[in-house]
Specification:
Chain B: It comes from Rhizobium sullae (Rhizobium hedysari). Chain B: Pfam families: BPD_transp_1. The complex is a heterodimer of chains A (about 290) and B (about 300). By secondary structure, chain A is mostly helical. Helices cover about 75% and strands about 0% of the residues of chain A. Chain B has about 300 residues and is mostly helical. The chains are: A mainly alpha (about 290), B mainly alpha (about 300).
Chain lengths: ~290, ~300
């Protein structure tokens, strides 16, 4: 109490506070600018580098040369375009399957009271945190046994390991946020659970599904370990692996211009998604983590 | 609700759970069980059907391997240092963004970019920026007069761990920022206003109001990040292949399993990784609970 009183006795003229506020604002803006440069510069630099040819690549000029030769080479490169297609196929299929499976599970876990509910939620959370390398041997056997080795479909299957627990968990959180009153009339009328989910909840869940789906898509698009292990030939690779394995003629002659062009190409869809849906992404991320 | 209705509800719940249970049995429980099983065999990857049981020999093989312990140390160093930096930096940036600034949505989108792009891409971009002869970072440092010739950041075995940590901090701080920001927005502004009116100085408001109220958010964020960092594979793999100075436990396990085709030993190594991550999870979750419990006691 005494120190509170002490603080109060120190009074300063209004001008002092005005100047102080201005100084604080200045430093805040400067810090913010610094943060933005720190986060965005590497990506900008990748773009700048990808448009420079030959010796210009090794100059530190900050403006892009806007020479799109590398991009044209990428478009003409069937292997790269193939891996782009593989990535799209794998990420879209994984997202779709995970949303369907996750939504069904989330309805049970979020809307129906049954004794094992909490235990199941804990198991699902536990599965989502265990390291992928742990299932690698067993997964290898499974993939071989199903005859999926070196097929992009193998990746769809294995990615469910991380995306399904994630979508289940996040969608459960979202479903719980809808007021129960929504379905009360339907329950009294003896409506089936399936109808409640399809006719009442689903139409409202667009934004939640979008949040969850975007994150699952990003997870699947960016995955590396399984994609590296379960595909062998270039035409079945996803883009992260394709980029990870690009090598020059020798170890010292890295084709950085091409790598940067490929990197920008892979990342562009993600950046657009982030720009358009940042609110939804944040909602999904925090629903999964904070409220859990 | 009558017992019959309740039973019907339970049945419905399990029906809705059928897909998730089938998928999890298929891609999580079964492979995990097989990994544990193979850990006790001398199987090789080229023909897993030929094996005999060898007891715990594989587990001993792994812990008697010097490079396993190098990998454990690397993983620990990487996890502790990068998560510590990410937490502090994440907190600082979250506090900055939380202040009413124009264009907050755009700023939030901008800081999400490093988090959303593939790890492989980030690794390549940093590899390029840190290139000893042509890297822009060396050029900037030379221009500013800090160094007179380029530093071989990624080629030097003593610097490579620092580089990997640096790249990881760049990529995952946004995740921290968002979780902490969400925590910040749950605190009602009246508390701060009251404290401000009472003339409590800013650092004291931060120390005795903001930080304690953020503890659950920070705790969860740290938990997620630690578990993620302990299993890190792609960043070190792309930046340094199997360079011993950044080889993580995941890289070690995969190397033995895939590159050396040792299904048995590789599975044992994976099992060790599993135990390591499980232990970390138990410790952190325990600490969070303890924290919450003691918080309730003092209230």
């Amino acid at each position: 109490m005494t120190d509170v009183a002490l603080y109060r006795t120190v009074r300063k003229p209004a001008a002092y506070y005005r100047v102080r506020r201005r100084i604080v604002r200045f430093f805040q803006s400067a810090a913010l600018l610094l943060v933005l440069i720190y986060t965005l510069f590497p990506y900008y630099w990748a773009f700048v580098s990808s448009t420079k040819q030959g010796a210009a690549l090794y100059q530190a000029a900050l403006v892009p040369a806007l020479d799109f030769t590398y991009y044209r080479q990428l478009i003409d490169n069937p292997v790269f375009m193939g891996s782009l297609l593989n990535s799209a196929y794998v990420a879209v299929s994984t997202t779709f399957l995970s949303l369907v499976i996750g939504l069904s599970a989330a309805y049970a876990l979020g809307r129906i009271d049954f004794p094992q509910r909490r235990v199941l939620l804990m198991i699902i959370l536990m599965i989502s945190i265990f390291p992928q390398v742990v299932v690698l041997s067993g997964m290898f056997e499974l993939i071989n046994w199903m005859g999926l080795f070196n097929r992009p479909s193998a990746l769809v299957l294995t990615y469910l390991l991380s995306t399904v627990p994630f979508t289940t968990w996040v969608l459960t959180t979202f479903i719980r946020e809808f007021p129960r009153e929504l379905e009360e009339a339907a329950i009294i009328d003896g409506c089936s659970h399936f109808r409640i989910l399809m006719k009442i909840l689903l139409p409202l869940m667009g934004p939640s599904l979008a949040s969850t789906g975007i994150l699952a898509f990003i997870l699947a698009w960016n995955e590396f370990l399984f994609a590296l292990t379960f595909t062998l030939t270039d035409e079945n690779r996803t883009v992260p692996v394709a980029i990870g394995l690009i090598a020059g003629n020798s170890r010292y002659e890295y084709p950085f211009g091409q790598i940067m062009a490929a990197s920008v190409t892979v990342t562009l869809p993600l950046i657009l998604v982030v720009l358009f849906f940042q609110r939804r992404i944040v909602a999904g991320l925090t629903a999964g983590a904070v409220k859990g | 609700m009558s017992a019959r209705l309740a039973r019907r509800d339970h049945l419905a719940a399990w029906l809705f759970l059928v897909p998730v249970i089938i998928v999890m049995l298929l891609v999580a429980v079964w492979p995990l069980g097989r990994t544990f099983f193979f850990a006790f065999t001398d199987a090789y990857l080229d023909d897993p059907s030929v094996y005999s049981m060898v007891g715990i020999a594989n587990f001993l093989d792994v812990i008697n391997d010097r490079s396993w312990w190098v990998a454990v140390r690397n993983t620990m160093v990487f996890t502790v240092i990068s998560v510590a930096i990410e937490t502090v930096l994440g907190l600082a940036i979250a506090l900055l963004i939380n202040e009413a600034i124009p264009g907050r949505g755009l700023v939030r989108a901008a800081i999400l970019v490093p988090w959303a792009i593939p790890v492989v891409v980030s690794a390549k971009i940093w590899e390029w920026m840190l290139n000893d002869q042509f890297g822009v970072l060396n050029k900037i440092l030379i221009g500013l007069g800090f160094i007179d010739h380029g530093i071989a950041w990624t080629a030097s075995s003593s610097l490579i761990m620092g580089v990997v940590i640096f790249a990881d901090v760049w990529m995952t701080t946004p995740f921290m920022v968002l979780l902490i920001l969400a925590g910040l927005q749950l605190i009602s502004p009246e508390i701060f206003e009251a404290a401000e009116v009472d003339g409590i100085p800013a650092w004291k408001r931060f120390w005795s109001i903001t930080l304690p109220m953020l503890r659950p958010a920070i705790g969860v964020a740290v938990l997620f990040r630690v578990l993620d960092a302990l299993r890190m594979f792609d960043l070190a793999y792309v930046m340094a292949a199997s360079n011993e100075n950044v080889m993580t436990v995941s890289i070690y396990a995969r190397d033995r399993l895939i590159s050396f085709q040792e299904l048995g030993v590789g599975s044992a190594a994976s099992t060790w990784v599993f135990l390591l991550v499980a232990l970390a999870a138990i410790i952190i979750i325990g600490a969070l609970r303890l924290d919450r419990a003691s918080g309730e006691l003092t209230k």
